[in-house]
């Protein structure tokens, strides 16, 4: 993380390592163990659950010293701790670093490096990941049920998770169509972005605008629900460009990839 704790302040920052645990679960555990409100726990973003990850959390502890031993839990380990004047909030970090090991993997080394060079230069599809849609797509099924009952009303009503899933699904459909029509790298007329649906007129016209309208036409009920759930229409890049890609063959059939997003 680009922001470093100052060493003093009302917030205790914790660098935590965890395996197969999601961010919100750990935040809840920290609140319970520290005896603070859940809203007094901050973090910059969500990490993948099924991975070994490390990230910073903050605890609001004004005028209170906390023995770190009371935060001991089998689901995570505290790597380091320091005080700071501010709470950690979404988007405060520059990005994430990844290390992935591919096993039982075989490919021509030259072809692989050529492809990685293209990805780093041109980017790759910026899909929302499967975890956004829940186990076996359950979040999408719940979103459909809420839409059918006219109850997809946003986070104030406890349905924000399903609203986000529905919005992400529509975006992915547009990206998929862009790929099939060889239009992923079209950048004119706002073509470098795709819709995060909500109230308001789409700023994109031309071929891309027509394509988006065609893709979303069968999902009229979903678009209508998102428009009336208090969301304003936004745009998200259809491409993501990994940086600092490094590949290393650690075994004959095992490749380690490192990159930043």
TrEMBL record:
Organism annotation: SAR92 bacterium BACL26 MAG-121220-bin70
Family to which this protein belongs: Belongs to the pseudouridine synthase TruD family.
One Gene Ontology biological process: pseudouridine synthesis
Protein name: tRNA pseudouridine synthase D
InterPro entries cross-referenced by the UniProt entry: PsdUridine_synth_cat_dom_sf, PsdUridine_synth_TruD, PsdUridine_synth_TruD_CS, PsdUridine_synth_TruD_insert, TruD_catalytic, TruD_insert_sf, TruD_pseudoU_synthase
Cellular component, GO, one term: cytosol
Taxonomic placement: Bacteria, Pseudomonadati, Pseudomonadota, Gammaproteobacteria, Cellvibrionales
A GO MF label: pseudouridine synthase activity
Key words, A-Z: Isomerase, tRNA processing
SUPFAM superfamilies: Pseudouridine synthase (SSF55120)
Domain spans labelled TRUD: 123-261
Domain of life: Bacteria
Keyword Ribonucleoprotein: no
């Amino acid at each position: 993380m680009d922001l470093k704790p100052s060493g003093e302040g009302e917030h205790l920052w914790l660098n935590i390592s965890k395996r197969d645990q999601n961010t919100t679960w750990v935040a809840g555990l920290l609140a319970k163990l520290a005896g603070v409100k859940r809203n007094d726990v901050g973090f910059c973003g969500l990490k993948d659950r099924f991975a070994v990850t490390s990230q910073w959390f903050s605890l609001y502890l004004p005028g209170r010293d906390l023995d770190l031993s009371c935060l001991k839990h089998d689901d995570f380990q505290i790597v380091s701790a320091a005080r700071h004047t501010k709470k950690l909030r979404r988007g405060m970090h520059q990005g994430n670093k990844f290390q992935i090991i591919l096993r039982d993997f075989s490919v021509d080394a030259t072809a692989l490096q050529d492809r990685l060079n293209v990805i780093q230069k041109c980017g790759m599809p910026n899909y929302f990941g499967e975890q956004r849609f829940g186990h076996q797509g359950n979040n999408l099924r719940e979103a459909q049920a809420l839409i059918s009952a006219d109850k997809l009303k946003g986070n104030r009503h406890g349905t924000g998770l399903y609203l986000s899933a529905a919005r992400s699904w529509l975006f992915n459909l547009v990206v998929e169509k862009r790929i099939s029509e060889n239009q992923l790298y079209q950048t004119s007329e706002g073509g470098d972005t795709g819709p995060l649906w909500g109230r308001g007129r789409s700023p994109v016209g031309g071929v891309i605008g027509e394509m988006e309208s065609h893709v979303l036409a069968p999902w009229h009920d979903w678009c209508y629900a998102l428009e009336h759930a208090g969301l304003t229409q936004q745009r998200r890049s259809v491409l993501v460009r990994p940086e600092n890609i490094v590949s290393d063959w650690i075994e004959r059939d095992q490749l380690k990839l490192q990159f930043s997003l």
